[in-house]
Amino acid sequence: MTTPCLYSIVRYAPYADTEEFANIGVVICAPKERYFDFRLTKRNDARVKGFFHDDNLFPFAKDAISRELELAKHHAGNIITDKQLAQFFRYFTARKESIFHFSTTRVRLTNEPKKELDLLYSHYVNHINYTKERREEILAAELKRSIERIDGLKNIFRHDVIEGMLTKFGMPLVARRDGVIKKAIKPLSFSQAEPGKMTEHCDLWVNRINRAAEEDLLSADDVLFTLEGPVNPTNHQTKAMDVIKRTMDKSGINHCPVNNDKETIDFAKQAIVVPPASRDNLIR
């Protein structure tokens, strides 16, 4: 028998001025079942810390929201009627001024509230149901926000189409100067279950860059692929990632892990370095 569940996504938003947030958990309530529970990401979530360049605040802030949710869960256990529990849930998740806030309350019908909590967490926090392409869009958007925070890099990198006689493809983060591509960055997600599909995805993008380089549309060493491998790779997937890195090395294409913020930002900064000749002209 299905029962209506109320749920809300827990969001971490440390910078009020930008209003950016990351989904870090889900809280759910099935009033008729007197069920109230939540699930949060880990204190050392590299995705969240990398998104906000935040190595110190998040673990403590996460502990604070966890304690608050535990208290709410305890209080919910003492509520008598389903109507009161639903009202409490809506009150608890109402928007407040805090580095944490909740999404608007949503409703889902389910047979198993606990299982529904796991499914919602997987979808909104782990992004398990996202396609590879969607995951790469998310990684590119997160990376763009990180780059935009760096002095001198705001509005430098934009989505662009690399087009020549024999090639045409889009890249999410491209910096041009006087029409010339100076730096280009593309996150690649290798979430495919089959190692062969992983290497095919790599070959597609390496071939695109090689073809564009042959047409003098860009230089291979001005391209950076940020790589996201499988969460819990098998031995075959690990070998596939090694093959992928060697393939990029052979073509002179830069690559680094998707969570290596320092290397990615250092690469992006090269787009605004004024060449020596230009500096000489400025001096003269």
Give the helix level as a range of percent.
Answer: 40-55%
Low-confidence region ranges: 278-284
How does the major sheet shape up? 5 strands, antiparallel
What would you say the CATH architecture of the largest domain is? 3-Layer(aba) Sandwich
CATH class of the largest domain: Alpha Beta
Order of helices and strands: EEEHHHEEHHEEEHEHEHH
CATH topology of the largest domain: Trna Endonuclease, Chain: A, domain 1
Tell me the number of strands: 10
The outline comes out as elongated
Taken as a percent bin, the fraction of beta residues is 15-25%
Distance between the termini: 81 Å
What is the CA-based Rg, rounded? 23 Å
How many structural units, i.e. domains?
2
**In terms of structural class, how would the helical and strand content be classed?**
alpha+beta
**How many H/I helices?**
9
Average pLDDT confidence is: 87
Give a quick summary of the entry.
By secondary structure, this protein is an alpha+beta fold.
Provide an overview of this structure.
With 284 residues, the protein is of the alpha+beta class. The chain has 2 domains: 3-124, no CATH class; 132-273, Trna Endonuclease, Chain: A, domain 1 (3-Layer(aba) Sandwich). The chain is 42% helix and 24% strand. The chain has helices at 46-51, 57-76, 82-92, 113-124, 132-148, 195-214, 235-250, 261-269, 276-283, and strands spanning 3-12, 22-30, 35-40, 100-102, 106-110, 158-163, 168-177, 180-189, 223-228, 254-257. The strands form 2 sheets. Strands 1, 2, 3, 4 and 5 form a 5-stranded antiparallel β-sheet that branches. Strand 2 (22-30) and strand 3 form a beta hairpin. Helix 6 runs parallel beside helix 7 (235-250). The longest helix has 20 residues, at 57-76. The chain starts with a strand and ends with a helix. 27% of the residues are buried.
